[in-house]
C-alpha cells in the first residue's frame, strides 16, 4: 500500500535502468518511477523534488478533501489493487537487460534509497527552489516506509557509471564533430538548438551562463540524434531544465540564482549532463509521437481533453465552442511543454514529481491534469469572448501560485482519472 | 453571445499571420506593435500565439487579428492550419542571419500553398539595429521582394523602427485590396473577401472611435 504513496510522489534522483527497459513496464508508473529513485548520495535533492506532495489525490476518492497537510492517510481500494506491481524480487532491478517481461517492481527500487533516510532528514532544510516545512514531514514518512526493508545499493552505482559513460560516448560520437561531418538536417537541428538555448528559462539568469548553455546544447543535441523519429522540437529545451536544477542542487549551495557552473569540475558537469540526458529520455519515452511529424500524439490528447472537458463541464465546453475557440489554440503548448510555460518555474518540481511517477501512463493522465488546470478558471472563461479567451489562456494568472494551488489541480485530476478513465463510455458524446 | 464592448467596434477584421524562421523576432515584432513592448528574454513560440490591435485606415477602423507562429519546421503542420483565412502575412527574416533570408522562398511557397491568392505579403528584414552584423543587404531583399511582388521593409523591434509602418502598410494594403475586390464583384454575397475574415459591423464603430485612438495607437 504504502508504495503507492511513493509511486505518486517520489521519483527522485537518477535514471538507472532507464533505456534498457524501453519496452517494459506496461502502464502505471510503477516500473518507471523506480528508475528515478534516489541514489544514496542525492539525498539533498530529494526535498526539492518531493516537496508539495501533501494532497494525496487518490485519497480524495474515499475521503472528503482534507486540508492538504495530512501525512498519515489511508489509501483507497484502487491503490490496494495495484499491489501486484510490488511483488517482484529486488534482484531483478538493475541488471535486467531483457526489457519487457519484468516490469513494475517499483517497490523494490524505492527501497534502495531508504538506508540514507536518517541523514536525509537532517539535510532537508537546505534545498534549491522554495523548500517548505512540509518536506520534512514527507521525508519522515518516506523514511518510515522505507526503513522496513533492506536495500541493495551496489549494483546501482555500476549501472549509473555505465549510463554516464554511454552518454559521454554519444556526445563524442555525435556532438563533438566538425560541421563538415554532419548532414544538412543535423546542422539545421544544431542551429535550432543553438537558437533556443539562450531562450531557455530566460527569466532565471542562471540558465544564461555559457557553461549551462553548452550543457543544454550537448544534452539536447545528443537526445535529438538518438531520437531521429522526432529530432529536436522546440520546447524540449524547457523540459530538461527541472532535471538540471535538481541534479545540480546536490553540488551547488544556495538558490539557483546564485549558482555558478564554474564551481564544478568538468567531470561533475559531465555526470550531471548524463543524468539529465537519461531523465529526459525517460520522461519522453512514452511521448515520442508528441514530437514526430504533425505531432499526432499531441493532437490526440488535445482531442481527448476536449471530450473530457465536455463531460465534466458542459457549459464551459459549449461556451468555448460557441465562441469558436479550439482546444488546439491553447492546449497545444500545454502538451508540448508539459505546462512548464504556464506556471511559475519555482513550483515546476512538484509537477515533475507527478509526471515521473505516472511513468508510461503519463500521456493519458496529462489529459486529466490539463482538464483540471483549465477548469480552474471555469467561471472566468464563461464570461469571455473568443479573443479574450485566447489571450487569457495564453497568459493564465498563475503568477501567485504555490504548491498548494498546483496540488489542488493534481488532486482533482486524480479524482477525475479514477472516475472516468476506466469508463470510456462516459466520455462518448 | 459575444457582447460588443468597445474592443469589438471595428469596421473590418483582418486575419494576419506572422511567419518566418525561428528566432528572427516575430514575437517581438508582434509585442512591439500590439503592446509597444520588447523583451530580450522572450521564449520560443510554441504552436501559435495571438494578439490584436486596431488601427485607422482612411476613415475606417481596421482590427488586425494577428497569429504569431512558431518558426521551427516541425510546427509547420500545426501552424499552417492558421493560414486559412489569412488575408495578410508578415514574412520575417533576420538581417544578421543569411540562412533565414534563404528560407524566405520556402515560406513563400508555404503561404501560397495554403492561402488565398490575394493574400498581401510584406517581407520584413528584422534586427536592422544590428548594423555591424548585417548579413543580408537591403538591395538583395528589395530585389527579391520586387521579383516576388511582395512589399518589403526593414525593421527593428528593439528600436521600434518601422514596426508600426510595416503593420500599418500591410493592413492598409489589405484594406485597399478588399475594397477594390468588393467593388469589382459588387455588393452581392460573394464579395471576394474570404468569408468570416472581413466583418463589417457598420455604424457600431462610430461611437467609440475617438476612444479607440486613445487606447490603441500609442
TrEMBL record, chain A:
Entry superkingdom: Eukaryota
Keywords attached to this entry: Signal
Biased composition (Basic residues): 23-35
Biased composition (Basic and acidic residues): 74-88, 96-105
Molecular function (Gene Ontology), one example: GTPase activator activity
Pfam families cross-referenced by the UniProt entry: RabGAP-TBC
Domain Rab-GAP TBC: 176-359
Signal sequence region: 1-17
Residue numbers spanned by region Disordered: 21-117
Coiled-coil parts of chain: none
Protein name per Swiss-Prot or TrEMBL: Rab-GAP TBC domain-containing protein
Organism: Brassica carinata
From TrEMBL, chain B:
Assigned keywords, A-Z: GTP-binding, Lipoprotein, Membrane, Nucleotide-binding, Prenylation, Protein transport, Transport
Cellular location(s): Endomembrane system
Main location group: membrane
Membrane topology: Lipid-anchor
One GO term (biological process): protein transport
Keyword Protein biosynthesis: no
Transmembrane segment boundaries: none
Database matches in Pfam families: Ras (PF00071)
GO cellular component terms given for this protein: endomembrane system
Gene3D superfamilies for this protein: P-loop containing nucleotide triphosphate hydrolases
Superkingdom assignment: Eukaryota
GO molecular function, one term: GTPase activity
Protein biosynthesis among keywords: no
Family membership noted in the UniProt record: Belongs to the small GTPase superfamily. Rab family.
Protein name, entry field: Uncharacterized protein
Amino acid at each position: 500500500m504504502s508504495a503507492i504513496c511513493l509511486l505518486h510522489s517520489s521519483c527522485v534522483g537518477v535514471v538507472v535502468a532507464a533505456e534498457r527497459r524501453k519496452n517494459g513496464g506496461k502502464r502505471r508508473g510503477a516500473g518507471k518511477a523506480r528508475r528515478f529513485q534516489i541514489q544514496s548520495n542525492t539525498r539533498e535533492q530529494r526535498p526539492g523534488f518531493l516537496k508539495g506532495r501533501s494532497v494525496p489525490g487518490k485519497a480524495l476518492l474515499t475521503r472528503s478533501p482534507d486540508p492538504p497537510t495530512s501525512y498519515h492517510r489511508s489509501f483507497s481500494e484502487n491503490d490496494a489493487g495495484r499491489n501486484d506491481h510490488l511483488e517482484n524480487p529486488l534482484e531483478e532491478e538493475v541488471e535486467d537487460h531483457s526489457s519487457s517481461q519484468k516490469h513494475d517492481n517499483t517497490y523494490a527500487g524505492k527501497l534502495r534509497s531508504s538506508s540514507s533516510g536518517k541523514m536525509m532528514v537532517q539535510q532537508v532544510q537546505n534545498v534549491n527552489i522554495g523548500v517548505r516545512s512540509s518536506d520534512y514531514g514527507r521525508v519522515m514518512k518516506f523514511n518510515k516506509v522505507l526503513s522496513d526493508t533492506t536495500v541493495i545499493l551496489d549494483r546501482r552505482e555500476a549501472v549509473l557509471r555505465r549510463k554516464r559513460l554511454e552518454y559521454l560516448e554519444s556526445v563524442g560520437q555525435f556532438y563533438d564533430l566538425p560541421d563538415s561531418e554532419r548532414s544538412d538536417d543535423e546542422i539545421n537541428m544544431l542551429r535550432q538548438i543553438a537558437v533556443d538555448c539562450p531562450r531557455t528559462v530566460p527569466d532565471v539568469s542562471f540558465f544564461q551562463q555559457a557553461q549551462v548553455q553548452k550543457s543544454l546544447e550537448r544534452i539536447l543535441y545528443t537526445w535529438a540524434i538518438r531520437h531521429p523519429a522526432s529530432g529536436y522540437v522546440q520546447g524540449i529545451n524547457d523540459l530538461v531544465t527541472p532535471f538540471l536544477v535538481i541534479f545540480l542542487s546536490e553540488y551547488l549551495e544556495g538558490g539557483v540564482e546564485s549558482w555558478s557552473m564554474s564551481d564544478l569540475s568538468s567531470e561533475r558537469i559531465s555526470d550531471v549532463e548524463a543524468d539529465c540526458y537519461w531523465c529526459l529520455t525517460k520522461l519522453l519515452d512514452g511521448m515520442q509521437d508528441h514530437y514526430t511529424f504533425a505531432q499526432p500524439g499531441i493532437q490526440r490528447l488535445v482531442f481527448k481533453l476536449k471530450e473530457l472537458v465536455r463531460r465534466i463541464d458542459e457549459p464551459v465546453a459549449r461556451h468555448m465552442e460557441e465562441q469558436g475557440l479550439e482546444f488546439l489554440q491553447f492546449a497545444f503548448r500545454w502538451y508540448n511543454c508539459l505546462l512548464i510555460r504556464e506556471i511559475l518555474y519555482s513550483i515546476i518540481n512538484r509537477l515533475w514529481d507527478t509526471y515521473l511517477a505516472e511513468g508510461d501512463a503519463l500521456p493519458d493522465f496529462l489529459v486529466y491534469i490539463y482538464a483540471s488546470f483549465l477548469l480552474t478558471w471555469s467561471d472566468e472563461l464563461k464570461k469571455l469572448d473568443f479573443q479574450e479567451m485566447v489571450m487569457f489562456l495564453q497568459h493564465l494568472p498563475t503568477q501567485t501560485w504555490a504548491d498548494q494551488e498546483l496540488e489542488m489541480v493534481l488532486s482533482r485530476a486524480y479524482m477525475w482519472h479514477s472516475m472516468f478513465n476506466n469508463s470510456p463510455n462516459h466520455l462518448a458524446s | 453571445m459575444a457582447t460588443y464592448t468597445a474592443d469589438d467596434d471595428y469596421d473590418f477584421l483582418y486575419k494576419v499571420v506572422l511567419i518566418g524562421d525561428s528566432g528572427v523576432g516575430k514575437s517581438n515584432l508582434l509585442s512591439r506593435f500590439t503592446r509597444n513592448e520588447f523583451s530580450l528574454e522572450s521564449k520560443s513560440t510554441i504552436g501559435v500565439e495571438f494578439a490584436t490591435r486596431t488601427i485607422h485606415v482612411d476613415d475606417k477602423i481596421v482590427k488586425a487579428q494577428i497569429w504569431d507562429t512558431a518558426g521551427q519546421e516541425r510546427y509547420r503542420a500545426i501552424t499552417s492550419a492558421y493560414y486559412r483565412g489569412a488575408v495578410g502575412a508578415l514574412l520575417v527574416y533576420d538581417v544578421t542571419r543569411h540562412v533565414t533570408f534563404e528560407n524566405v522562398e520556402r515560406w513563400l511557397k508555404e503561404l501560397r500553398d495554403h492561402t488565398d491568392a490575394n493574400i498581401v505579403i510584406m517581407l520584413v528584414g528584422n534586427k536592422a539595429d544590428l548594423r555591424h552584423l548585417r548579413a543580408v543587404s537591403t538591395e538583395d531583399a528589395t530585389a527579391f521582394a520586387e521579383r516576388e511582388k511582395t512589399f518589403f521593409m526593414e525593421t527593428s523591434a528593439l528600436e521600434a523602427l518601422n514596426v508600426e509602418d510595416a503593420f500599418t502598410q500591410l493592413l492598409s494594403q489589405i484594406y485597399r485590396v478588399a475594397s477594390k475586390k468588393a467593388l469589382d464583384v459588387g455588393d452581392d454575397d460573394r464579395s471576394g473577401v474570404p468569408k468570416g475574415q472581413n466583418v463589417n459591423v457598420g455604424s457600431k464603430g462610430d461611437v467609440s472611435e475617438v476612444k479607440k485612438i486613445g487606447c490603441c495607437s500609442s
